[in-house]
């Protein structure tokens, strides 16, 4: 990725959404971990081969979410008066 591409992506940050992510160790391969997000993505091969729909890791995270809700689900990226950015909860 070039710096220009990274800058172009960063310019879209207001549309980004925070999610919980988990680094889950492989059950069969030592020193291998998968990144699984609370919105249903996994970096493992089975997830890709299965059409990016589910795998054992995403199912495990769904089980966890049933017990421990995502504490970041309502956060929004907001531009502050000093032109910096921060994740915050919208006023209710
Ligand atoms: Zn997986």
Q: How would you summarize this macromolecular structure in one to three sentences?
A:
With 92 residues, the chain is of the alpha+beta class. It has helices at 3-10, 45-49, 56-67, and strands spanning 21-25, 33-37, 76-79, 85-88.
Please state the structural category.
alpha+beta
The number of helical runs is 3
**Could you state the order of secondary-structure elements as H and E?**
HEEHHEE
Unreliable spans are none
Percentage of β-strand residues: 15-25%
Q: How would you state the average pLDDT, rounded? A: 90
Distance between the termini: 39 Å
Q: What can be said about the biggest beta sheet?
A: 2 strands, antiparallel
**Number of E strands:** 4
Strand order of the largest sheet: 1-2
User: Helical amount among residues, as a percent range?
Assistant: 25-40%
Radius of gyration, in angstroms, nearest whole number: 16 Å
Summarize the SSE layout with pairings.
Layout: H1 3-10, E1 21-25, E2 33-37, H2 45-49, H3 56-67, E3 76-79, E4 85-88
Antiparallel strand pairs: 1-2, 3-4
The structure holds zinc ion.
Structure description:
The protein is of the alpha+beta class and 92 residues long. It has one domain. The chain is 27% helix and 20% strand. It contains three helices and four strands. The protein has a two-stranded antiparallel ribbon. The chain is globular, with a radius of gyration of 16 Å. The chain binds zinc ion. The site of zinc ion has 7 residues, from α2.
């Amino acid at each position: 990725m070039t710096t220009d591409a990274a800058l172009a992506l960063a310019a879209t940050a207001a549309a980004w959404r925070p999610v919980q992510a988990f680094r889950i160790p492989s059950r069969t391969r030592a020193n291998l971990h998968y990144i699984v997000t609370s919105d249903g993505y996994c970096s493992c091969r089975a997830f890709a081969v299965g059409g990016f729909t589910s795998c054992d890791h995403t199912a495990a995270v769904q089980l966890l979410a049933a017990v421990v809700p995502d504490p970041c689900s309502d956060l929004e990226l907001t531009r502050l008066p000093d032109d910096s950015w921060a994740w915050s909860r919208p006023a209710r």
